[in-house]
């Protein structure tokens, strides 16, 4: 709403929309509402994760026309039909510094996906481990993606959902790191925002920046060595 008011000072006709406002996202125009390079080749998702609005707002998976871009923002690209996924990979072969920021579903990842990814100029790929149940498929994905360096493999990690305690959350984030992924911790947010303690905020702050948790690990190793 702050942006709406700011633009309203300059233009008479300012409209609010998009998936964040429950718009199903029937089309996508490159550069409109998102930075250049970001593209969406599908909308929706096949899953109904209780902490995610993708299914609720956009419905089941719907392939869109494939428009060029080096940053794929799809909710679940790997849930699309194989011919669509391969067409997206074909488009990406002409791109540089490729980012899969919408997320790569570890439960759907197959060897043929990885074979295609190896032929692309990947900058970074994002995965997810939002519950303890997400660890086994992430471990399997780590094996499939062992040829990719750690800095190219990022992982969204939802923490504090469904009564999770801080000790279990920290163990899960640490396990994600051990599996060769760079965690990006996110405190759970609901329609009725929870007031998180300083300890929870500190945990999220540490594990959302590789520079923070990598330096912490180095400091601990130095202390052990002395």
Outline:
With 226 residues, this protein is of the alpha/beta class. It contains eight helices and eight strands, in the order αββαββαβαβαβαβαα.
- Can you tell me the number of structural domains? 1
Report low-confidence residues grouped into runs of 5 or more: 219-226
Order of helices and strands: HEEHEEHEHEHEHEHH
Question: What's the Cα radius of gyration?
Answer: 19 Å
First-last Cα distance = 54 Å
CATH architecture descriptor text:
Alpha-Beta Horseshoe
CATH topology: pyruvate-formate lyase- activating enzyme
Strand order of the largest sheet: 1-4-5-6-7-8
Mean pLDDT: 89
Major β-sheet annotation: 6 strands, parallel
What general form does the structure show?
Answer: globular
Provide the CATH top-level class: Alpha Beta
Number of strands: 8
CATH H-level homologous superfamily name: tm_1862 like domain
General description of the model:
- With 226 residues, the protein is of the alpha/beta class.
- It has one domain (32-225): tm_1862 like domain (pyruvate-formate lyase- activating enzyme).
- It has helices at residues 2-8, 54-58, 82-92, 111-118, 135-144, 166-178, 198-206, 210-225; strands spanning 38-39, 42-43, 62-63, 71-72, 98-100, 122-128, 153-159, 182-187.
- It is globular, with a radius of gyration of 19 Å.
């Amino acid at each position: 709403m702050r942006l709406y008011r700011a633009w309203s000072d300059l233009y008479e006709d300012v409209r609010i929309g998009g998936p964040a406002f429950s718009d199903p996202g029937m089309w996508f125009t490159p550069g409109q509402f998102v930075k250049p390079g970001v593209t969406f080749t599908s909308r929706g998702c096949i899953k109904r994760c209780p902490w995610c609005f993708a299914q609720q707002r956009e419905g089941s998976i719907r392939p869109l026309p494939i428009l060029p871009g080096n940053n794929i923002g799809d909710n679940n690209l790997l849930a699309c039909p194989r011919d669509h996924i391969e067409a997206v990979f074909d488009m990406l072969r002409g791109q540089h510094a490729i980012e899969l920021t919408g997320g790569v579903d570890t439960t759907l990842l197959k060897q043929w996906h990885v074979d295609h990814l190896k032929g692309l100029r990947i900058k970074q790929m994002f995965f997810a481990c939002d519950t303890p149940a997400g660890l086994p498929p992430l471990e399997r994905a780590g094996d499939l993606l062992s040829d990719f360096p750690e800095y190219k493999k990022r992982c969204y990690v939802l923490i504090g959902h469904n009564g999770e305690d801080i000790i279990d959350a920290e163990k899960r984030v640490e396990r994600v790191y051990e599996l060769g992924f760079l965690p990006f911790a996110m405190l759970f947010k609901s329609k009725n925002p929870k007031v998180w303690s300083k300890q929870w905020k500190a945990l999220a702050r540490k594990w959302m920046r590789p520079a923070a948790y990598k330096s912490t690990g180095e400091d601990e190793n130095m202390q052990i060595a002395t």
